[in-house]
Design a protein that fits this description.
mainly alpha, 3 helices, 0% strand
């Protein structure tokens, strides 16, 4: 029985790869090797690359904006859950310290 091969990740044209590497390395403090690794992970996960400055399709840009906004909203909800859990743990730790100090006295 033959094994199914997974589809190869999408690849960027060399010019687009160079453009991304140049812009990211100029605007961040990470190396071009780290940027290349990030792009490789995106490609392997089926991520889509869009160089926003070069995109002239308003529908595609609106869809990108919508996706980003939805992700931001999801992150806000997750951050709220984490914030509540941290508050709970801080109160619990305070209560435990109080109980142990009252019991030791």
């Amino acid at each position: 029985m033959k094994e199914k091969k997974s589809p190869s990740p999408p690849s960027l044209p060399p010019d687009a790869q160079r453009e991304i590497l140049n812009r990211l390395s100029a605007e961040t403090r990470i190396s071009s090797q780290e940027i290349a690794s990030i792009l490789e992970v995106l490609a392997a996960s089926g991520g889509e690359y869009v160089i926003v400055d070069c995109c002239n399709d308003s529908q595609k840009l609106k869809a990108i904006r919508h996706r980003i906004q939805a992700q931001m909203n999801g992150l806000d909800v997750s951050a709220g859950k984490v914030r509540k859990r941290v508050r709970f743990l801080e109160r619990f730790a305070s209560w435990v310290r109080k109980e142990t100090s009252d019991g030791a006295a």
